[in-house]
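A further point concerns the way the authors explain their paired sequence and structure data. Showing the layout once, in full, would remove most of the difficulty. For illustration, here is how one protein appears when written out as sequence plus structure tokens:
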Amino acid sequence: MELIENNPYRILGLLANSSEREIQNRKSLIIKNLSIGRSYDSHYNFSFLTPIQLNESTVVQASTKIEINQDKINNSLFWFIEVNNFDGTALNYLKNGDKNKAIEIWTKVTSGKELSSKNFSYFNNIGTLKLLSNTIDEIKEGLEFKIKLIESENFIDFVKNVGDAQTYTFTNQQQLEKFIDDILIGLLPRFDRVQIANLFNNSSQNVITYINKKFTEGPLHEIQLLIEDTKSKRKNSPKDGYLYGKDLLNKSREGLNLIHNLLGQNNLQYRMISDNVAKEIIQCGIDSYSKGDKSDLSIKKSIELLKSAKQIAKTSVTIERIDSNLKELDDLKYSDILFALEILKRLKEIIIDTNRDYTKQLNIFKVDEFLRKEITNSVLQKIASTDRSEYITNFIELADYIRKNGASLEIFVIINKFVAHLPNTHPFVIAEEKRKQDEELKRKEKEEERKKKEEQDRIFYFQLLLVFIAIVLIVWAAFGAGWAAAILIISLLVWVNINLKN
């Protein structure tokens, strides 16, 4: 962590509770050594820290950062102090590179202990070590040690030890906020905001409130600016409302998710900003259709926006407005389908009425002409592809009724076109295919029967002709040619008459 790795006390090779004289002497000593080309390395440039390169400029800057009393205190919270023998023993282990042993010592003297004027240094020192960890759990522990120190009534003992308590003007809350501001600078490059907020979830409500405020102020402001920008663009070009609404939705999503994760679903600020985003998206959807080309695609896009708005809307008033507009757009979306169904429904009623009263006649030619004009292929395609299964079912029932009652020839064409738009697995497509197969089978059976009957008739007529010829020959032999001719003429007349009847 930068605040520890490049702490001015580390650069000077001192503990944070060193005196002003020690600081000035160390500064002069290091600069003197550097000026003659001699390196300077202190016991407190611990081996587990990232190596640093000293030069006169960095040394001067380090000493400048701890000239003011408040700066001393701020930087001391990210370094080590030695108050008693336990600190001295642990620090000796750190000098020898044994970080784990130092943690073990400070853990024993802080675990289950209340912070007091005698042990405040332990909480500070173990907190500094924990903050150097690469694991979230240890960093969280480090923060808890530091916050416990700053919030305690014994923090003034820490101030006395590292600075001047008489010129210290910060309250504990102000110091806490300053510490959090500093620590966030070190944590943000490594973790996202939600992860960082979770590091503080065991802290006091004051800390959690401050963290949430720090993290949500920016997103709240950014989202409000996005809403105002979208509103301005929409008013200038309402027909492009879909694009603006979609853009607002995408750009506000990350900020809304962050605010939701930090503040919670029921937080008033979250609910208000989320609802305001939803309201602007609603208006974008409405304007996109009402000021646009009012095409099916325009309706579809407006519905898409309204459904997206419903997912983030938080108040019942906004949700009701969305539902109301969705219903209106739905009616527009299905208007062609509903009109076609109404036509078929009315035709069915006319057929029923005509069947009851035989004095009434249905003009099939006019019916066909009307159906051909109003129920176009595009309307059939809409019905077949609609997401309302009940509309498909109603169309099939009505069309099939009209077909079965022979009220229209055009209805056969309509049904065939409709089937072509349905997926092959649809039950009606399967049923139609079976119906056609059954009709073809019946036609073939009738054709076979007709051919069979014709063959039987040919045999019968041939046999009958043979009988007539036999009779003629017998009469000729018995009575002569005159009687035979008469019988032949009579037989021919009978044979022709039988053929004509059949």
Summary: The two ends are 111 Å apart (CA to CA). The chain has 24 helices and no strands.
